[in-house]
Structure formats: structure tokens, C-alpha cells
Amino acid sequence: MQIDPEDAVIGENPRMRRAPAQNRVKDMFDQIKRRFPKKPPAFLLCILPERKNCDIYGPWKRACLADFGIVTQCLSPPPVINDQYVTNLLLKINAKLGGLNSLLEMEEKHAIPLVSRVPTMILGMDVSHGSPQRDLPSVAAVVSSLDWPLISRYRAPVCTQSPRLEMIESLFKQEGDNDRGLIRELIEDFGNSCRKLPQQIIIFRDGVSEGQFTQVLNKELPQIIEACKFLQDDWSPKFMVIVAQKNHHTRFFRDSNDGSNVPAGTVVDKGICHHRGYDFYMCAHAGRIGTRPTHYHVLYDEIGFTPDDLEELVHSLSYVYQRSTSAISVVAPVYYAHLAAAQVRQFVKLDESSETGSSASGGPAPVPELPRLNDRVRSSMFFC
């Protein structure tokens, strides 16, 4: 990869360092606009003055992604800069700028069972909740795959919703003759990237307990189906809904005394699984002894995966996380949804948006809307 020299190095005005975070960010962008008067730069590397979660991180990200449409990478001053640190940083930068750090051989050969043969969109869904002591808005993120038959590139719209509400409300949101929900724009972007509408939609849902499985099928899935029908009445893709759970007490150990962990890619789909349900455990990554596997529950399947093919797909999706050179503990779309919700939460100080959780009239406080991402970065992997 050929890297051009930097166009500019801009430092913060020392007199602004005790000013409010919003004023500091505004002053920096005044400098950037003077240096780039015609159009904003394509990429900004920001060295924060202190730890990553300092008070200017959220306003800075909001200005870059929502106001100006600039891809940005922040880093706090590291104690030691070595090759591993720089490599990890470049993995994130390359993914944000539209590159792919790795591809599965199965992707390149179009050999993923069922997925490579039929246009398939993969969704990851998660909801991030605020402090339990206060009625703070929750943030929902839905991540979807692009560039079928690849399964390595994703994008993510995010929205706010009522405090502590786990079910996502804005998957389908009709306003007059338009749908303003999250699913519509994901389907349109999928169609633009591969010139086809998906005929199969695989949904990975994170953060729900077994008592909420019925709500996923009765509230969220109908919204997604309605969004598809609203977009094109004669189009009816097949659906599959899978819940990924990490919050459980099951652990795997090898039946040996050599002190080693179960090998990466271990799958358990009988014996300790539900006697009537369709579920399995997977320890896709190499971890310490007693590593917690991910428990996958198949709630709905119109596609017709065999257990072996589904486990192979889940295993493959654990290797497409662009910030890592090895497998992670859960499928990448779920991890991306968690990252997107957490990062966009920083755009506005949701933890300061309401001290009492109620309005002056005594009712629930209105849920603040998040700013929309700029069109220049809307389809990027800004969450990496």
C-alpha cells in the first residue's frame, strides 16, 4: 500500500485546553477549515490529550462523522509504541477507509453453504443501555453485510429508544408514504452494493434472555418482514433468527491433565443442549482454560440449514472481524453492533441528558434523537 505524506499537522491552541469540550472541538475544526478551505480531508488521525474516553472524544466523533463526514481514528498517547500497537491501529484505519484486512478462502471461492449461492444479507442486532440508576435512553444498532457473496464488510445505522427497552422499535417506521426505519436503508445499501435484493436474511440477535425469545419473534421479526413488504410488495425473502448468548454459566474443559484449553472451533450440539430446541455451543477462539463459549439458539429457520452447515457459517463469521487476525468469541456482526451502539452513544452526552428521567410535566422525558451520519461516511465501517 502506498501511503502519501500527511497534508497537515494541526495542534490544539494551548489557550483552549481548559475550555469546554465543544469549544475545543470547534476551535480545532476552525483550524482544519482554514487549512482545507475547499473540501474537508478524507481522513484525520487524532491524538487525544489523555485517555480515549476523555471529554472531547464524543464531541470530536460527532463533528467528524455527523457534521463533516470525515473518517477519523483516535488514539490516546500510548506508554510504548511498538510494531504490534501500530499494526492493530492500521487494521482499524484500513477497515474504516473501505479496505479489507483479510478474506476467508470460502468467500473467495464462493463456497459458503447456501449463502454463496443465494443473495444473503446477514444482520447483527444489539441494544446498549444507559446507567440503571437513571432513565437514560437506550441505543439500538443494526449491522448488515454488504458486497454479497462476501461476508466481511458491514455498515450500521443506529437510533435511540426508550430507556431499558430491549426490543428494537425502529426497524420499521412508517411516516406517511415513507419508511424511516433502520431496515429499509440497509436493504437499499445491500441492493446498491451487489445489484440484487437479498433472498435470504440471517439475523443474529444479541442481549436477549430466554424469556424474551418470544418477543423477538413477535415484535422484531414482523417489523423486518413489514419493511420488506413496504419496499417491494411482491418480494418475500426467507428468514432465519439466531440469538447469541454469552451471559451463562457453561464452561468447557478438556478431559486431560495437560492444562490446555479446548481447541478453537470446538462445537457442542448434543448432550447438554435443549432436548427440544435447536441450539449449540461454540468456542470459536483460542482462550484460557474454562473460556466461556457462545450459546447460539435458532429461533426461526425458513432457509433450511443443516446443523453442520449452520455451525460452519457461524464459525466462519467468527473470523471476519476486521480488528483481529484470529477468531473472536462471537460472530462479527454481533460484535460490530455492540461497537456501533457504544460509539454513537458518545455523540451526545446521554448520561447527562436527563437527571430525573422525566419532563417538567411529570411524564417520561422525550427520547433525544441521535444525529444522522454524514453521507460520506454513512456506509463505512466507522465503528471499527
On the 0-100 scale, what is the average pLDDT?
88
Q: Measured on Cα atoms, how large is the radius of gyration?
A: 22 Å
- Alpha-carbon distance between the two ends: 20 Å
Principal-axis shape equals globular
User: What share of the residues lie within helices?
Assistant: 25-40%
Structural class given helices, strands, pairing? alpha+beta
Largest sheet: 9 strands, mixed
Order of helices and strands: HEHEHHEEEEEEHEHEEEEHH
Strand segment count: 13
Beta-strand residue percentage: 15-25%
| Count of DSSP H/I helices | 8
Q: Which regions are unreliable across 5 or more consecutive residues at pLDDT < 50?
A: 353-360
Task: Give a description of the structure.
By secondary structure, the protein is α+β, with helices and mostly antiparallel strands. It is 27% helix and 18% strand. It contains 8 helices and 13 strands. It has helices spanning 21-35, 57-68, 83-96, 105-108, 182-194, 213-231, 307-317, 332-345; strands at 43-47, 71-75, 120-128, 138-146, 153-155, 158-161, 174-175, 178-179, 200-206, 238-245, 266-268, 279-283, 294-301. The strands form 3 sheets. Strands 3, 4, 5, 6, 9, 10, 11, 12 and 13 form a 9-stranded mixed sheet that branches. Strands 1-2 form a two-stranded parallel sheet. Strand 7 and strand 8 (178-179) form a beta hairpin. The longest helix is centred in the middle third of the chain and has 19 residues, at 213-231. The chain is globular, with a radius of gyration of 22 Å. Residues 353-360 have low confidence and may be disordered.
